[in-house]
Design a protein that fits this description.
heterodimer; A: alpha+beta; 46% helix; B: mainly beta; 1 helix; 7% helix; elongated
Chain lengths: 83, 142
């Protein structure tokens, strides 16, 4: 995990006593890590905009992976076998 | 379900196994040499067939060509698309589009990959625009 400005904010929170876990040098406490995960940007895959350009919906990156497909195929086969 | 069509599975298998003359590798059937296209569907594509393509003003049957070359895979990394600029479609059909999946095809409509959109189905009211961001689609073998 990189440590950009977000870390300064989290450490400030931590140092302000907003987190209950003890400080660990050069490491996040659990609450810092959770907050960091929430604040890390999620890459947008698609957006829907209205005629004024306002974003009305969005979603993450869409993936097509052969192994994922194979896994689904196996799951389907197992499900059919169970029936 | 998302992934690789049966046609490409067989194409890859045949080109990488001794299905050719005298046990040589078989021949890979190349895709067309022009820009590939992203096709939008209102239903999920499957390994054996495309989904049901969108219709109406704002969507061109067969899909839209990608704007530029994607960064090539190296060391097994995924390939993302579109590169350099987004792909957009503005719904002028008079009704609502429901977008479920995409197919990546060559310029002659031969499929290479397919997948559901993250969060599908995506509802696009008449007059609204659906945009696939740069690198909004990721394709990989792993």
């Amino acid at each position: 995990m990189s440590e950009p400005t977000i870390v300064t904010v989290l450490r400030a929170d931590h140092q302000a006593g907003l987190h209950s876990e003890p400080h660990r040098p050069n490491r996040y406490c659990g609450e810092c890590a959770a907050a960091s995960a929430q604040q890390e940007p999620v890459q947008v895959g698609w957006v829907v905009t209205d005629p004024d350009g306002n974003v009305v919906d969005s979603g993450g990156v869409s993936e097509a992976h052969a192994v994922a497909w194979l896994g689904e195929l196996i799951d389907n086969a197992q499900t059919e076998g169970d029936n | 379900m998302a992934g690789i069509p049966n046609t490409l599975i067989s194409n890859v298998l045949n080109a990488t196994t001794p299905t050719g003359a005298s046990g040589a590798p078989g021949t890979f059937t190349a895709f067309a040499g022009s820009a590939m296209k992203v096709r939008l569907n209102s239903t999920s594509s499957t390994a054996s067939a495309n989904g049901t393509q969108l219709t109406g003003t704002g969507y061109t049957a067969g899909g839209t060509a990608v704007p530029a070359a994607s960064t090539a895979s190296s060391g097994g990394t995924a390939v993302t698309l579109p590169a350099t600029s987004a792909l957009s479609w503005t719904n002028g059909s008079g009704g609502t589009w429901s977008i479920q999946s995409f197919d990546l095809t060559d310029s002659a409509a031969a499929r290479s990959w397919f997948g559901d959109f993250n969060g599908a189905p995506v509802s696009i009211a008449n007059g609204n625009t659906f945009t696939i961001a740069v690198a909004g689609i990721s394709i990989g073998l792993l």
